[in-house]
Amino acid sequence: MKITKICCIGAGYVGGPTMAVIAKKNPNIKVTIVDINEARIAAWNDEDVSNLPIYEPGLAEIVKETRGKNLFFTTAIDEAIKESEMIFISVNTPTKTYGKGKGMAADLKYVELCARNIAEVATTDKIVVEKSTLPVRTAQAIKSILHNTGSDVNFSILSNPEFLAEGTAIEDLLNPDRVLIGGESEDAIESLANVYGSWVPQERILRTNVWSSELSKLTANAFLAQRISSINAISELCEHTEANVNEVAKAIGMDSRIGSKFLNASIGFGGSCFQKDILNLVYIARSYGLTEVADYWEQVIILNDHQKRRFSDNLISTLYNTVSGKKIAMLGWAFKKDTNDTRESAAIYVADHLLNEQANIAVYDPKVNEQKVLNDLNYLNTRSEDENKDLVTSFNDPYETTKDAHAVAIMTEWDEFKTYDWQKVYDQMKKPAFIFDGRNILDKSEMEAIGFEYSSIGK
Ligand SMILES: NC(=O)C1=CN([C@@H]2O[C@H](COP(=O)(O)OP(=O)(O)OC[C@H]3O[C@@H](n4cnc5c(N)ncnc54)[C@H](O)[C@@H]3O)[C@@H](O)[C@H]2O)C=CC1
Ligand SMILES: O=C(O)[C@H]1O[C@H](OP(=O)(O)OP(=O)(O)OC[C@H]2O[C@@H](n3ccc(=O)[nH]c3=O)[C@H](O)[C@@H]2O)[C@H](O)[C@@H](O)[C@@H]1O
């Protein structure tokens, strides 16, 4: 099928950047991104592209170039579905917070709503593309909804999981390691392969069956997260043995079978997907009675929780076993650098632990505002919103944030943190002045020469 119009349901961190790049690379295809969230759509349509709802390096430029030409953002969902030959489902699939599978399974209600919406309004044949990360065998459910409409509209379902990482989304989309397309209908698969083919070499477009494609996405995230938990586990051992985790990571990473990427020890991984996808994998394995498989992957999450807890415990014990009434300056709140996304950020959990010990938290993140910080903490429901407001303050300036602080905790690896005038930070802090570098981005000897009591991960 020749594709002239694409609709993407879900204008989020995946839908937005992915469709912007598809539009840029396919000027003859009209791409419409729809969402039920009016405020989000309005932000995507904001004249001033610095107000887009998502911060991603390079995204604003592409939106500026394509918006209003062949890229459109709207809440008119039905119209966009009706006119398009290809519809991407790119809605959120969070961990369930209720009922069966609570805390483990993926909540598929938004995906199902999309399938029902498509089934209801489609009058011509459609290729429906799963872009959201979904449990293996979800295509079966979507198929069943779409094929029971009583109409003679023909639907082909494809799985096309997304592998972009936030902060490098545009780079990842422009130059992907691979594009994965799972499906039954060869015609549908080739239609989608052609869309990507306008900039991705054919040998990097991998075709599989639907189930392999769905499961590959969960597996890729599980493997990536497992590497982080593995190096973080070793980081704790390093702290007891005078080994240095950076040196260990370098030494093992030079083995081409292991590879050097994704071996940075940290306060633990965050982000909306690693934990959610592994919990989902564990849930699926348990539902097939595969206890050993489930336990194996669950350990990745257990270790990650341990790493976050270990960081706050170490901070508290170093500050003479109490942080009550002490000002702890947290540099960074986003789950990684170059994004404004804070979902599941380790900073939230570390702050929560410290607040339980009655610390005063001062936060500075170049892309996250105070309301978002408070919303993240309120969402945990550990204490009242008023208490969070009393104990947590955000600043727009790192020097204000660290002034009179007892300790600085580095939570995100923003590049600008490395360039600060650390002597100035030191001079205005309470003494002894402690730094807890949760990202290993500062130079230990430099910090110690200034006078800081410096501790990092795995050294
Ligand atoms: N964030 C990331 O870096 C990556 C996410 N993914 C997966 O992509 C999917 C989407 O993730 P994000 O873009 O981060 O989520 P998001 O939460 O940023 O965006 C999802 C959007 O879908 C909209 N939506 C929900 N139900 C809708 C409906 N029935 N009709 C219209 N709009 C609806 C929401 O209002 C929201 O704006 C998830 O399954 C996630 O696991 C995959 C790769 C990378
Ligand atoms: O499905 C998804 O949502 C995406 O999840 C991750 O991307 P993302 O979460 O955006 O970012 P990552 O770069 O993977 O970082 C995740 C977390 O791990 C941490 N991390 C990463 C690498 C590392 O060596 N050490 C480490 O602690 C980061 O700081 C961050 O908190 C995957 O890298 C993407 O391929 C995938 O598409």
Automatic annotation (TrEMBL):
Catalytic activity: UDP-alpha-D-glucose + 2 NAD(+) + H2O = UDP-alpha-D-glucuronate + 2 NADH + 3 H(+)
Keyword field contains Amino-acid biosynthesis: no
Pfam families membership: UDPG_MGDP_dh, UDPG_MGDP_dh_C, UDPG_MGDP_dh_N
Gene3D superfamilies xref list: Cytochrome c1, transmembrane anchor, C-terminal, NAD(P)-binding Rossmann-like Domain
UniProtKB keywords: NAD, Oxidoreductase
Domain UDP-glucose/GDP-mannose dehydrogenase C-terminal: 329-444
Superkingdom per UniProt: Bacteria
This enzyme's EC code(s): 1.1.1.22
SMART domains according to UniProt: UDPG_MGDP_dh_C
Cross-referenced InterPro entries: 6-PGluconate_DH-like_C_sf, NAD(P)-bd_dom_sf, UDP-Glc/GDP-Man, UDP-Glc/GDP-Man_DH_C, UDP-Glc/GDP-Man_DH_C_sf, UDP-Glc/GDP-Man_DH_dimer, UDP-Glc/GDP-Man_DH_N, UDPglc_DH_euk
Pathway of action: Nucleotide-sugar biosynthesis; UDP-alpha-D-glucuronate biosynthesis; UDP-alpha-D-glucuronate from UDP-alpha-D-glucose: step 1/1
Keyword NAD: yes
Class of the enzyme per the UniProt entry, highest EC level: oxidoreductase
Family named by the database record: Belongs to the UDP-glucose/GDP-mannose dehydrogenase family.
Protein name: UDP-glucose 6-dehydrogenase
Originating species: Winogradskyella rapida
